[in-house]
Amino acid sequence: MAARDESPDPAPDAPGDGSRPSRARMPRWLPRALVLALALVACYQFAHWAFDRLVGLLVNVLVAFFCALAIEPAVDWMARRRIRRGLATGIVMLVVLVAAAGFLLAVGSLLVDQIGTIVRNLPQYVDDVVKWINRTFHTHIDTGGKLHDKVLHSNWVRTYLTSGAASVWGISATVIGTIFQVFTVVLFTFYLAADGPRLRRTLCSMLPPAHQAEVLRAWDIAVAKTGGYLYSRALMAVVSGLAHYILLQVLGVPYAPALGVWVGLVSQFIPTVGTYLAGALPILVAFTEDPWDALWVLCFVVVYQQFENYLLQPRITARTVDIHPAVAFGSVIAGTALLGAVGALIAIPATATLQGFFTAYVRRYEVTDPRM
């Protein structure tokens, strides 16, 4: 019986004589890399989904944070006079909410009443304006033609303006529909302001001692700039409201107190376009009484705006929120693009906080070049 050859076969992966191709192995790291990549994609998708669902809450918390910074100086002032911090926060917020509710109620009633008056007296207003133009500029515009009869005295004009008046209540219903968001902002503002010292201690306890002072310093800058912006704007709103109230009272324009409050608040707390929105309403109301009164109001709005821009505002904001107008305008545009109306409202205090932060931490040098 022949003996079998016990010599082993060559290894599968041995190079051999080149007649058999070697089989490539999968790298050991490739499965782990694939799993890690899939896990990262899943985490990204989950984070995107969660952020999309929570973006409204995050915006409310951001607004509440700036509101808490704005009222914290008043809360601290009351706390130093031995008033419990929670009670002091409640008092400050109650005053602000009552003032806001009173403003909205007064202006809403004024708008509804004035739109109703315009609807009822629109033909008479047009007749008075045409007669005034004929008398002043010696023209001969016919007030009794077909256009006047078929358009100005027709029902479609009244129907259109009546629907405009009804839309005011529709806007009010929309505002009431956002009561949950307002409650969320108010609740977070209360807790952030009432527990401000505790919150700072909690944050600082997570940091080494070398960084705690920097965090507290940045927080103080944010409080000072945001509070300074609010109080400087409030002071300018009082001055503006009183000035316009006196003018409207002298001219005999109805609703002078409500219009003064409207001009003061809207012109100061709505960035960029607030001045034009504030001046449009008293001009419209004055026009319903006498076109000359509307012209006087328009001239006063323009002159007062120059006085405020070049004399009043630089003196009031010199020690609080001194921002270049171009920077303020750019910050409002950027805030609007990011967060809409909310971003426009908080853009200036946020920019002032960043400016104060850089001013405190960025070292400046004297310019020695004679050309500068």
Architecture overview:
There is one protein chain. This protein has 372 residues and is mainly α. It is built from twelve helices and no strands. The chain is extended, with a radius of gyration of 34 Å. The N and C termini lie far apart (110 Å). The mean pLDDT is 77.
N- to C-terminal distance: 110 Å
Helical fraction equals over 70%
Count every beta strand, where a strand is a DSSP E run of 2 or more residues: 0
Largest sheet: none
List the uncertain runs.
Answer: none
What is the helix/strand order?
HHHHHHHHHHHH
Structural class: mainly alpha
The share of residues in extended strands comes to: under 5%
Return the average pLDDT rounded to an integer. 77
Features:
372 residues, mainly alpha, 80% helix, 0% strand, extended
